[in-house]
# Entry
Amino acid sequence: MSQKRKDKISKKQFKEVVEYAIQYHFCYCYLCGEPILPGQKHNLDHVVARSKGGATEPSNLRPTHYDCNQAKADLSLADYRRLQRFFLEEKDRGK
# Structure
């Protein structure tokens, strides 16, 4: 029998999580390190992906640019960074 996920949160709780993440991570994308500017599309990334058991709670969420978050998908941070290095190396080879 499968277990039900217990990490559903209300809209109010989600807003509090966003504020926590921004306050403690200084509005920088934790994936690329660039600032998240006012009005820029952003998201919260699960450090440990939900698909891999990560919970939707402040300690597992980090602010990201929307595009960075979409590119990471459910990869671990280490795998995402390896993939980014690979694409940068391929781009450099093409010059």
Notes: The first helix runs from residue 11 to 25. The two ends are 54 Å apart (CA to CA). The longest strand covers residues 42-46.
